[in-house]
Write a structure and sequence with these properties.
Helices cover 26% and strands 23% of the residues. It is α+β, with helices and mostly antiparallel strands. The radius of gyration is 21 Å and the shape is globular.
């Protein structure tokens, strides 16, 4: 069931890029949670296309409809279905792709698996599928906010191509992240990123980058070893998103170059609580959160759709060239930020509910 994610807080997304609409069914949301379309809309507005000159110019309002599971402004405890209708679909722009596989897209692999594919904008493999994830993430945030009012999930762009920002994960704010279209809170680097993306778009090319995410004030004890470790579920959540190619938490791959005496996070008592002096572990030890900030990074590849001619093949097994049309992001990372946050909230919410269900000793 590859379209579903989570155990107790379980989501199932549906829809294709140029079909009638996309959305999500959420199962396991507790009852009597105050929930309105506006709670969801504010997050969808952060990921929608057409926000600036450095993203796709597809014009979608992405207005959400809650079609089940909510009555008189409160959740019923039954499945919540959220629908967003497609308004600016232009399937005719992809007619050439009906017989031709786009390089580094899922065209060939979907056909190899299913024997059929929706060639209109990538169908199910399109990043438009992530609308359902963001909608579900907004619901997960509401649950987390009630249980842990101090918990905060914040993502931001730290790198585009070879431009690397300097950001303090402990102090950066959402206002700083949302202050410019790059979602990079390093103002000087953000200006360079805009110039780089616009120049790359004019050349018909694309760029990749890195999104970092920090979870502040998480509770200790989340995670289900050994196969559902918290970082394992975070990694699966992130790598299930379109265009992702890498995941690292805490010191990540840099740990391979360190000694144990350098990497170990020494314990101390701070404010009557067990804390660590450093946070090389990224807030998770043994697959379980230790109460420190959870911090990880996700690498995104350059957008596969570019306007330059590329060698490819057809379904009839003939070689040809293809210069893609349509409307696409020259760099996906600015719009990936709210998706990373959403998937993080979904993982945390699922593990919080699992923790509360699995222990009589905790409220």
């Amino acid at each position: 069931m590859g379209s579903s994610f989570g155990r107790l807080f379980r989501i199932t997304t549906f829809g294709e890029s140029h079909g009638g609409g996309v959305g999500v069914v959420i199962d396991g949301c507790p009852s009597r949670l105050a929930l309105s379309p506006n709670d969801i809309q504010q997050e969808l507005d952060r990921r929608r296309p057409g926000q600036s000159t450095i993203v796709t110019q597809r014009q979608e309002s992405d207005r959400c409809e809650i079609v089940s599971g909510v009555f008189e402004g409160k959740t019923l405890g039954t499945p919540i279905a959220i629908l967003v209708r497609n308004e600016d679909a232009r399937p005719e722009a992809y007619r050439e792709n009906q017989e031709t596989y786009r390089p580094s897209h899922a065209d060939y692999t979907y056909e190899a698996k299913y024997g059929i594919r929706n060639w209109q904008g990538g169908g199910r493999a399109s990043a438009r599928e992530t609308i359902g994830r963001v909608a579900a993430g907004a619901v997960a945030r509401k649950i987390l906010g009630q249980l842990f009012p101090r918990l905060e999930v914040l993502a931001y762009v730290t790198c585009v191509h070879e431009l690397v920002a300097t950001i303090d994960s402990a102090t950066v704010t959402r206002e700083e992240v949302e202050a410019n279209p790059t979602r990079c809170p390093d103002v000087a680097v953000a200006a360079q990123i805009v110039e780089l993306i616009e120049g790359t778009r004019r050349r018909g090319d694309s760029l990749g980058g890195v999104v970092e995410c920090v979870v502040r004030q998480p509770p200790a004890g989340l995670g289900e070893p050994v196969f559902d470790k918290l970082e394992a579920d975070l990694a699966k959540a992130m790598l299930s998103m379109p265009a992702t190619k890498g995941f690292e938490i805490g010191s990540g791959f840099a740990a391979a170059k360190m000694k144990g005496s350098e990497h170990n996070d020494a314990f101390e008592i701070r404010g009557a609580e067990v804390r660590t002096k450093t946070n090389h572990s990224g807030g998770i030890q043994g697959g379980i959160s230790n109460g420190e900030n959870i911090i990880f990074r996700v690498a995104f590849k350059p957008t596969a759709t570019i306007a330059q001619p590329q060698k490819t093949v057809t379904a009839g097994r003939t070689e040809t060239t293809l210069a893609a049309g349509g409307r696409h992001d020259p760099c996906v990372v600015p719009r990936a930020v709210p998706i990373v946050e959403a998937m993080t909230a979904i993982v945390l919410c699922d593990h919080v509910l699992r923790q509360r269900a699995g222990s009589l000793a905790r409220p």
